[in-house]
Amino acid sequence: MLYLIALAAFVATFLGGVCALWLRDRLHLVLGFSAGAIIGVAFFDLLPEALELSAPMYESSVVTAVIALGFIVYLGLDRFLFAHGHTVDALHNHEHHHHHDDHVAQIAQSERGVFGAGSLSLHSFLDGIAIGLAFQVSGAVGIVVATAVLIHDFSDGINTVSLILTNGGTRKQAYRWLTLDALAPVAGIAAASFITVPTETLGIVLALFCGFFLYIGASELLPESYHSHPKALTTVMTVLGMVTMYMAITFAGI
Q1: Among 71, 99, 210, 233, which has the minimal tally of Cβ within 10 Å of its Cβ?
Q2: How far is residue 150's CA from residue 13's CA, in Å, rounded to a whole number?
Q3: Exposed, middle or buried: residue 170 (CB in 10 Å: 0-12, 13-18, 19+)?
Q4: DSSP label at residue 138
């Protein structure tokens, strides 16, 4: 059963990314949907799970503080670690090293995409661990958790490709990160058989990723989706992404 679920997780993630690549000419719509989907995952999946798993040991105020910490950590990394290329470009805008500075700025932008895709891949790895640990509890619990993960694995593939492409990455890089993201839950399922994670600790980890995802969706994907395109349709796609994730997660929880 676990082998089939691992295969399904790989296929679902990879298909989502391939669809994003096929629709590159309409990437603003994909980005709009991706922004809504990733924000929806944060609000409707990660937040409730973090609160529920952490409840025996941590107050809800602690969990929300960790979410805010995740948002701030990602904000700091994005603004100070990956923004240096833009700063260099601004400082030397009128100098003869302008082309070199453009190259530095492109590298910095690419690093932002890599960090975002890497964060999604790590989340997918934790998803795999969650599936494996859930099956250690019981087959019924494992099926419910696996269903929830598979439903948003498709969006994870879209989000991974979107982050790479919107930050100046190539199709080859997008495929590379998509493959890594698709393999991540498989690796997580395998790793779960060797580790035991306290549920309270897993809840705090999910809270941290909730903050990451809120920043990625609201500050990365959402602005890019309507930067130079009609705002009405992209807004509809964002709302559709959130509604889709709400319906999917609600259905999976039945």
Answers
A1: 99
A2: 8
A3: exposed
A4: -
Helix (H, G, I), strand (E, B) or coil at 96: coil
How distant is the alpha carbon of residue 78 from its chain centre?
15
Name the nearest CA neighbour of 201 among 143, 121, 133, 137. Answer: 133
Residues contacting 142, CB < 8 A, separation 6+: 1, 131, 134, 135, 136
CA contacts within 13 A on the Cβ side of 67: 21
**What span, in angstroms and rounded, lies between the C-alpha atoms of 242 and 55?**
26
Residue 102's domain spans which residues?
2-252
Q: Are 97 and 239 in contact (CB under 8 A)?
A: no
What are the φ and ψ backbone dihedral angles of 145, each rounded to 5 degrees? -65, -45
Residue numbers in the chain where pLDDT is lower than 70: 20, 23-25, 27, 81-112, 137-138, 140-141, 144-145, 147-148, 151-152, 155, 227-229, 252-254
User: Which tens digit of pLDDT belongs to each residue from 82-98?
Assistant: 543 332 333 234 334 44
Residue 45: DSSP 8-state: I
The structure's pTM equals 0.64
Measured at the CA of 231, the angle between CA 229 and CA 236, to 5 degrees, comes to 120
Q: Output b/e per residue, 14-53; b: 16+ Cβ within 10 A.
A: bbbbbebbeeeeebbbbbbbbbbbbbbbbbbbbbebbbeb
The amino acid present at 53, given as its one-letter code, is L
Count of structural domains within the chain? 1
CB 109 within 8 A of CB 167: yes
Distance of CA 32 to the CA centre of its chain: 14
- Chain position carrying tokens 């593939």: 157
Q: CA of 78: how far to CAs of 124, 212, 216, 239, in Å?
A: 21, 11, 10, 25
